Structure formats: structure tokens, C-alpha cells
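Reopening this ticket.

The earlier resolution said the output was attached, but the attachment link was broken on my side. Pasting everything inline this time so it's all in one place.
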Amino acid sequence: MLRKLYLSPFGYLISGFLHLFSRVHKPFMVYGYRNKKTGKFQKLTRISSSAKLLNKRNINLADNIWIGHYCLVDGTGGVTLGEGVQLSSHTVVYSHSSQDAIRLLGRHFIELEATKRPGYKLKPVTIGEYTFVGTSSVILPGSVIGKGCIIGAGSVVNGMVPDYAIAVGNPAKVVGDTRQRDKTRFGDLLDLAKYYDPEAVSSEK
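Inline output:
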């Protein structure tokens, strides 16, 4: 009943109430998100009231995204999350790093604009459609994760992860392929036509 009500035109009102309530009560999932980059309201996106999105104008979220409790998404250098991405609790996505600049500049670090700091890294992060990132993972600046991936809990991603990869560890390494994992479950799906990767399904027919 509540789900049907949210998906009706009353959903915008419900989302507004949840956003207001999130200012005084944490954590819980807040339904609906206005994309600061595109101006669009995304009704199916759910973001925890305890999650922190920095520099929202540089964060481009597609719809139907889940960002769990106590996550941090740093938009300083730009972050793009494709449709259906899920970030489990306590996951961090960084798009900037001052690990070298702070040593090189010392007390002068704060005096310079970020783009003029020697060693300061500003690199966008992209995570592809329907990728799942396990709890307490860290995604470092410049990383590109493909669609349909699983990033294991506690992993540290620094670089490229191909489509449909299962990657785990620190540093994260590819240990499997989600297409092989999914094939065993095709028979359980109610409607294969809605599967996010039609090519994987058609190859089984």
C-alpha cells in the first residue's frame, strides 16, 4: 500500500517530508533525489539520511540508485553513478586526493586554490549501471568501474574494473564474472525481457 502511494503523484510530497525528517533523525532511507547536475527529480533513488554527498553539482546520479548508511560520495573531481548502482553502508567514493600536496606545501596548503596545489589530484570516478559495491569499500580518484560488477566488501578500487567483473581485495583484483553467476538464476526471473543485460540472456537461448 505504502509503495503504491509513493509511486503515485503523492510520492513527491512524501519525499519532501522524508527529506525534512532526515534533518533531525538518522539513519533511515530517504526516497527521491533531485539531481543537482541535471535538475531532474529521481523518484526511485534512495539515499540514507546519514550519507554525505559533497559538491553535489559535480555528482551525476542516474535513477534507481541506492546509497546506504554512512556512505561518503566526494564530488570534488566529478562522480557519475549509472542506473541501479548500489553503494553499501560505510562505502567511500573519492574524486580528489591531497596525499602529496599536503607534504609538498605544508602550512601553505590552505593558501592555494585546489587546482594550483602541486601534487593535488582531481580525477572523476564512474561506476556503471547495476554495479553493486560491498560495505566499507573505498573507490579512489580516477577509478572507472564497469556495468554489472560486484565489488566485494572492504575492497579498495584504484583504476579500471571491466564490465561484469567480480573484484575483491586491497587492491581490488578481478576474481570472477557476474554473467556466469547470473546464468544459474535465469530460470527464476519472472520476465527475462526486463533483465538489464539482454545480450547475456539471448546467448543462453
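Reporter confirms the inline version is readable. DSSP finds five helices and 20 strands in the chain. The first strand starts at residue 29 and ends at 34.
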